[in-house]
C-alpha cells in the first residue's frame, strides 16, 4: 500500500492520516465545498474536492470517491466511521475498481449490517440474544400485536438496517406499538433505504457494553477487551470507558469470549465491535449488533492495550500477518473518553454551529485529544456535532476521572456552545463516580445534570 484515500472527514480522517504516515503511506483527503480548508484536508498529502456541502452530494457519492482515488493513484481506501463505512455496496465498488478496501469483506458488512441476520449468526455461534420478533416488512402489520405480546413490553422497535440511535423507538405499552412501527419504518426507509423492522425486548436496568474484536480473515480472531458506553443521549454515546465499572470478572470473560467466537465464526476481517446489553439486575448479557468498522471510541481500547487499531487495519489490508501484534494482549489501567460536541445540552442536545473564535487544548501525561478542528474554523450544520474526543488513561478509575476533569477544566473553547460544562457535571455526579452508569443515567439524574440557571427556579 503506497497511497491511501481517506473517505471521511473530521477527527477520524485526521486520525487515520496519522496512522498511515507512521507506516510511510501517503494520504489523500476528499472534501466537500464546506470543508475545503478543514484540518483533515490541510494535514493530508493531497486533497480532492468531491462536491457540495451536503453529504448526499459529496461524502456519500461512491463514484466521486472512487474517481478521486483513481485520479490520485491511490491504491486503497479507508472509510473511517459513518458515511459509507458500513455500506457493502461501497466496499464492493472499491474492490471492483481494483482498490484495497480497508475493512471487512463486502459480504461480512452486508450480513452483520442486517440486524436480523446478525442475530441469527450470533445465535449460531452460541451467543445469547434477547427475545425478538421476526422481520416486519414495511406496512405489514398483520400479527403485530401478537408479536409485541410475545416479545413483552417495554420493547424496542428497531430497523434492520443502519445504526445509531435514530434506528430505534422505545415502546412502553401495546397501544403505542403500531404508531411506533409506522414512524420507525418511514424514517428507516428514508435514512437507510430499507424500512424493514423488528421488535426486541427492552432491558430497563441496562448497561451498554461492547467488545472490540479484530479478525484476521482466516477464521482467527481476538478480542481486545470491553468498553462501557452506557452514558448516552438519544441512544447515542457521549462517555465511554474501560474496564466497565459494573460487570464482574466472570461476566467480562464470558462476554469477551462470546464476541471472539462470533468474529471467528463469520471469518471476520479487520477491526469490529460487538455490542451487548447487560441486565444490571441479573448480570446476564445479550447480543445487540455488530459494527463492522472502526468505532468512534476506539482510542479507549488503544490506551489500555497499547495497540494502534488503525495501523493494524492498514497492515492487514496490505497483506501483513498481524497475529504477532495481537497475541498475548493485556489490559492496563483505566481509560475514559468524553465526546466534546458543538451542541446545547439545555436544548435537547441540539447542534450548535458557528465559528470557533478561541480553542486551547490542554496537554498532560496520559491525555490524548483527537480532533478535526482548529481555532478559527467554522462548524457547519451539515455534519455530526463531534468536535474532539478527550481520552485519559490512568492507573485506576478514580485517577482517570480526575484526569478527565482536569483536562476538560483546562480546555478553552469560545464562539460556539458545547457540552463541556455538562460533561463536567456528569463526571462529578456521585452516581457516575460510583460506577452506576446505566443507559438511563441522564434521565435518572436530570435535575442534577441540568441545574436551573441564575434567576430560574426548578420545576
TrEMBL record:
What's the top EC group for this one?
ligase
Domain (ATP-grasp): residue spans on this chain: 119-318
**Which is an annotated GO molecular function term of this record?**
metal ion binding
Q: Which domain of life is it from?
A: Bacteria
Signal peptide coordinates: none
Known EC number: 6.4.1.2
User: What SUPFAM superfamilies would the database entry show?
Assistant: Glutathione synthetase ATP-binding domain-like, PreATP-grasp domain, Rudiment single hybrid motif
Q: Which PROSITE patterns match?
A: ATP_GRASP, BC, CPSASE_2
Keyword annotations? ATP-binding, Biotin, Ligase, Nucleotide-binding
Q: Where are the transmembrane segments?
A: none
Ribonucleoprotein found in the keyword field? no
Q: Where is the Biotin carboxylation domain?
A: 1-447
* Protein name from the UniProt record: Acetyl-CoA carboxylase biotin carboxylase subunit
Amino acid at each position: 500500500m503506497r497511497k491511501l484515500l481517506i473517505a471521511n472527514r473530521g477527527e477520524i480522517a485526521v486520525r487515520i492520516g496519522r496512522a498511515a504516515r507512521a507506516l510511510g503511506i501517503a494520504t489523500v483527503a476528499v472534501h466537500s465545498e464546506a470543508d475545503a480548508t478543514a484540518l483533515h484536508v490541510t494535514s493530508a498529502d493531497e486533497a480532492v474536492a468531491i462536491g457540495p456541502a451536503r453529504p448526499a452530494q459529496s461524502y456519500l457519492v461512491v463514484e466521486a470517491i472512487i474517481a478521486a482515488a483513481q485520479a490520485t493513484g491511490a491504491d486503497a481506501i479507508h472509510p473511517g466511521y459513518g458515511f459509507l463505512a458500513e455500506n457493502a455496496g461501497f466496499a464492493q465498488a472499491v474492490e471492483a475498481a481494483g482498490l484495497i478496501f480497508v475493512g471487512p469483506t463486502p459480504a461480512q458488512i452486508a450480513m452483520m449490517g442486517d440486524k436480523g441476520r446478525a442475530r441469527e449468526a450470533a445465535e449460531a455461534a452460541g451467543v445469547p440474544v434477547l427475545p425478538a420478533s421476526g422481520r416486519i416488512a414495511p406496512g405489514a402489520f398483520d400479527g403485530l400485536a401478537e408479536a409485541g405480546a410475545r416479545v413483552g413490553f417495554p420493547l424496542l422497535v428497531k430497523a434492520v438496517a443502519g445504526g445509531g440511535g435514530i434506528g430505534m423507538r422505545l415502546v412502553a405499552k401495546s397501544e403505542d406499538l403500531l404508531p411506533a412501527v409506522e414512524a420507525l419504518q418511514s424514517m428507516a426507509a428514508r435514512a437507510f433505504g430499507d424500512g424493514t423492522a423488528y421488535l426486541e425486548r427492552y432491558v430497563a436496568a441496562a448497561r451498554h457494553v461492547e467488545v472490540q474484536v479484530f479478525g484476521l480473515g482466516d477464521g482467527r480472531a481476538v478480542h481486545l477487551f470491553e468498553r462501557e458506553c452506557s452514558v448516552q443521549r438519544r441512544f447515542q454515546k457521549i462517555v465511554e470507558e474501560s474496564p466497565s465499572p459494573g460487570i464482574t470478572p466472570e461476566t467480562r470473560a464470558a462476554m469477551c469470549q462470546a464476541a471472539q467466537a462470533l468474529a471467528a465464526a463469520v471469518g471476520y476481517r479487520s477491526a469490529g465491535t460487538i455490542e451487548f446489553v447487560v441486565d444490571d439486575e441479573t448480570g446476564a448479557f445479550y447480543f445487540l449488533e455488530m459494527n463492522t468498522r472502526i468505532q468512534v471510541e476506539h482510542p479507549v481500547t488503544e490506551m489500555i492495550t497499547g495497540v494502534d487499531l488503525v495501523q493494524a487495519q492498514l497492515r492487514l489490508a496490505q497483506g501483513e500477518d498481524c497475529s504477532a501484534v495481537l497475541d498475548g494482549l493485556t489490559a492496563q489501567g483505566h481509560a475514559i473518553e468524553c465526546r466534546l460536541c458543538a451542541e446545547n445540552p439545555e436544548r435537547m442536545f441540539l447542534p450548535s454551529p458557528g465559528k470557533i473564535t478561541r480553542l486551547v487544548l490542554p496537554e498532560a501525561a496520559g491525555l490524548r485529544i483527537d480532533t478535526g478542528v482548529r481555532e478559527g474554523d467554522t462548524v457547519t450544520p451539515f455534519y455530526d456535532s463531534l468536535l474532539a474526543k478527550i481520552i485519559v488513561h490512568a492507573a485506576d478509575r478514580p485517577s482517570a476521572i480526575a484526569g478527565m476533569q482536569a483536562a476538560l477544566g483546562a480546555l478553552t473553547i469560545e464562539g460556539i456552545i458545547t457540552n463541556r460544562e455538562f460533561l463536567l457535571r456528569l463526571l462529578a455526579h456521585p452516581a457516575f463516580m460510583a460506577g452506576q452508569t446505566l443507559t438511563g443515567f441522564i434521565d435518572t439524574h436530570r435535575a442534577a445534570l441540568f441545574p436551573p440557571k441564575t434567576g430560574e427556579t426548578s420545576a
